[in-house]
Design a protein that fits this description.
This protein is an alpha/beta fold. It has a single domain (about 65-295), classed as Aminopeptidase. It has helices spanning about 5-25, 90-110, 130-135, 165-175, 195-225, 260-265, 270-295; strands at about 65-70, 80, 90, 115, 140-145, 160-165, 185, 190, 230-240, 250-255.
C-alpha cells in the first residue's frame, strides 16, 4: 500500500464514522475540559514576584541577619518516611519545624535578626529561596532538609553541604552575565565595569562567600560532634541551586534520614528538634562572633 493511500485512509475513515453516526443519530462521547479525569499540575512560576518575609529580632540593621530556608513545602512533600504503624512523615513538615525551632532559639538569645523563606506549608520556587536572602542583604543562608535512603532503614546521620568548586565557578559566570542586575556584591562595585572585569570581580566575591560558607560548615560539625549523629564524611559539596548566591554564605543542612527510625525519632519530636536548633544556633553565634573579631582587628 502506497503512502498516499494510507494517508487517505487515516483521514477519511474517521470522517466516515462521524458521518454515519450523524445519519443514524448516534452520539459519540467526546472528552470535555474540566471533567474529573483531566489531571492538572501546577508548576512553579519562577518568574513570579518574590514576596520578602518579615525580619524578626533587633530593630537594628547593623545586627547580622540569618535567612532560614525550610526545604520543600505545599504540594512538594520532599522525602517521605513511614513509621512502623504506617504513619507518614513528610520532609516538608520536618524542615519547617526545625526552621521554626532554630528561629525561636536565635530570637531568645537575642542579637541576631532572623527571616524565614517560608513560615507555613506553602510552595516556594527554588530560585526564590536564595534570592530572598540576597534581597534582604542577609549575612548567612541556611537551607534545612531531611534525606531518604529509599527502602534501606540502616542509613542515618546528618550532613552539611556547600557549593562545589565547579558549580561555584559556573554560578559566578552566570551572575557576571547579569552584572546590571546588581551594583555591588560583597562590597565590590560591579555596575559600570566591562564584562571581563565584572566576571573577575564576581568570581572573587564568590570565592570569599565560599570561604565563609566552609567556615560555617566546620562550626556546625564542631558544635554538633557530641550532640548529633553525622554520616561518615559529613562535609560535602554539590551543585545545589539554593547555594548559588554569590554574596551570601550559604549551606544546606541535611538533618537526617526520614527512612531511619532513630533519625526520625529526633526529627519528629520537640526534644530532638531542640537538639538540632541548639547546635545550629551555637554555630551561628560563634560564626558571627568570629567575623566581628576579624572586622575589629582590621580596623
Amino acid at each position: 500500500m502506497s503512502y498516499r493511500a494510507l494517508l487517505l485512509i487515516v483521514l477519511l475513515v474517521p470522517l466516515a464514522l462521524l458521518g454515519g453516526a450523524r445519519v443514524l443519530g448516534v452520539t459519540i462521547p467526546v472528552p470535555h475540559w474540566g471533567r474529573d479525569y483531566v489531571v492538572r499540575i501546577a508548576f512553579e512560576d519562577a518568574g513570579s514576584a518574590i514576596e520578602l518575609p518579615p525580619v524578626e529580632g533587633p530593630d537594628d540593621p547593623s545586627r547580622p541577619l540569618v535567612v532560614i530556608d525550610a526545604g520543600h513545602g505545599g504540594r512538594d512533600p520532599g522525602a517521605v518516611g513511614t513509621g512502623p504503624d504506617g504513619s507518614r512523615f513528610n520532609e516538608k513538615d520536618i524542615t519547617l519545624a526545625i526552621a521554626l525551632a532554630l528561629r525561636d532559639e536565635l530570637l531568645k538569645a537575642g542579637g541576631i535578626r532572623v527571616a524565614l523563606t517560608r513560615a507555613d506549608d506553602r510552595i516556594l520556587p527554588l530560585a526564590h529561596r536564595p534570592e530572598i536572602a540576597r534581597r534582604l542583604d542577609a549575612d548567612l543562608f541556611i537551607s534545612v532538609h531531611a534525606d531518604s535512603a529509599g527502602s534501606r532503614d540502616d542509613v542515618s546521620g546528618a550532613s552539611i553541604y556547600t557549593l562545589s568548586d565547579e558549580a561555584s565557578s559556573e554560578a559566578a559566570a552566570r551572575f557576571a552575565a547579569r552584572e546590571n542586575d546588581a551594583d555591588r556584591l560583597n562590597g565590590i562595585a560591579i555596575e559600570g565595569q566591562s564584562a571581563a572585569v565584572s566576571a573577575i570581580l564576581v568570581e572573587l566575591s564568590q570565592q570569599r562567600t565560599q570561604e565563609d560558607a566552609l567556615a560555617f560548615a566546620g562550626l556546625v560539625l564542631r558544635e554538633g560532634e557530641a550532640r548529633l549523629a553525622f554520616v561518615p564524611q559529613p562535609r560535602r559539596a554539590a551543585a545545589l541551586a539554593v547555594l548559588r548566591a554569590p554574596d551570601v554564605p550559604s549551606v544546606l543542612f541535611e538533618s537526617g534520614f526520614v527512612t531511619n527510625r532513630d533519625d526520625r525519632a529526633r526529627l519528629t519530636t520537640p526534644e530532638g528538634r531542640a537538639q538540632y536548633a541548639g547546635v545550629l544556633a551555637r554555630a551561628i553565634r560563634v560564626y558571627f562572633a568570629r567575623r566581628t573579631d576579624v572586622a575589629a582587628g582590621g580596623e
